[in-house]
Amino acid sequence: MPDDNTTVVAQLAELVASLERDGTDTVVGLRELIENGTRHVAGSRCAGITLADGKAVSTVAATHEYATELDRVQDRYREGPCVAAAWEHHTMHIADLSADDRWPRYRKYALDHTPVRSVLSYELFVEGSSTGALNFYAEKPHAFTADSVELGGVFATHVALAWSMLRRHDQFRSALASRDLIGQAKGIVMERFNLDAVEAFELLTRLSQQSNIKVTDLARSLIDSEHPLKRRHR
Question: Residue 169 above 60 pLDDT?
Answer without folding.
Answer: no
